[in-house]
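Page 47, continued from p. 46.
Same chain as before, 444 aa.
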Amino acid sequence: MAENINEMRGTLHVTDWLAGIKYTPEDETEIVQVLFKNTRAAFYTNPDRIPLKKGDWVAVEASPGHDIGKVMLTGPLVHLQMKKSGTRRDAEMKRIFRKASEQDIEKFKAARAREHETMIRSRQIAAELGLNMKIGDVEYQGDGAKAIFYYIADERVDFRKLIRILADTFKIRIEMKQIGARQEAGRIGGIGPCGRPLCCSSWMSKFVSVGTGAARIQDLSMNPQKLAGQCGKLKCCLNFETDAYAEASKQMPPRDAVLQTQDADFFQFKVDILARTVTYSTDKHLAVNLVTISASRALEIIELNKQGLKVEQLEAEKVKEEPPKEYVELVGQDSLTRFDRSGKSKKKRKAPKPEPKPQRSAESKEPRQPRQQEPRQQKAPGQEPRQPKGNPQQKRQKPRRPNGQANQGNGGNTAPATAPGNGNNQARRPKRKPNPPKNENPKE
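Result:
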């Protein structure tokens, strides 16, 4: 896992935006940046114009012997990185021998396997000598002839005797290199207060000094416990947003500006740089009658105060907002199925309930005609009734008389004469409806 992190750290430091574009061999592989363990990187020349690409393992010149590293960057972007690091193009550089072979890779892995054992033994030797130092890591050279010991110390340490003992013990060339607390935290790793892996152990390869001025620009609390990271120093992430806060703070009103109104004077109490709002108080040291306004409104009031004018209130008058316009879907109106939807909606409508009709009286001039049937002529007294088509006994039935009543006016020999509106002389039909009154012609 540590090897993967170290390899990823160098690749994320520089992004080759021009990858995939073909250049001339002189521009592409003239100078190459090579990455080693613990974010150690250097620039090497390629005199033999060996075709290289990002990620290739190469054998480079070392003192003494050779070292194994991975190509980090090629092409024109190398010159920009040299300018950024302060390396001149005409400076003396070591060269690349060849692409690493299988034997070189095997020897390199065998040297890497000895690093942890060497670090533990060297710590014991330093403790026996009583040196106030801590050896944090050991890096072997690719050919195994040299090793770099990284140590941490708060004061100057005389380690000349330690070097002689280490050289006699491991039979290699010794180089001591002092590192800081940030580099040590990057090698150990961990989880930051943001819940993500430490930046120094995941992608950062160069460390920039962090000062308390970055915290003041961002208006952060000057609490050392909150500003310090796991290394005990100020967090590196304080520098990430400092430029954005510095640019935004230029558009904010000055802290010592006093806003004058007709009622009282307001002093600046709190500032939200990213939201561009300012909170003012009527007391210079306490939160009294707090009013929050925008930065543009505060600058406007300051200009009016310079002209000798005092505003009625800090907050600007609210402008009546127009109601939002309703959205009209014009595309849906031209749909092919718009008529189908309209037909369905009509079918779903419920028909209104019919109002109850009043009963017809005997004085009505025109009798009600049955639906889809011709009106029936009534028999005059002394005439035989008209025989309907078919068998009348099957279609008509004898009208019923109410109990206890006898026929009136005809002695019971003819059809009974009933009062208008009485349905006793109606034939049985699907829907019972009253017959027209007697001795009246419905055609009139």
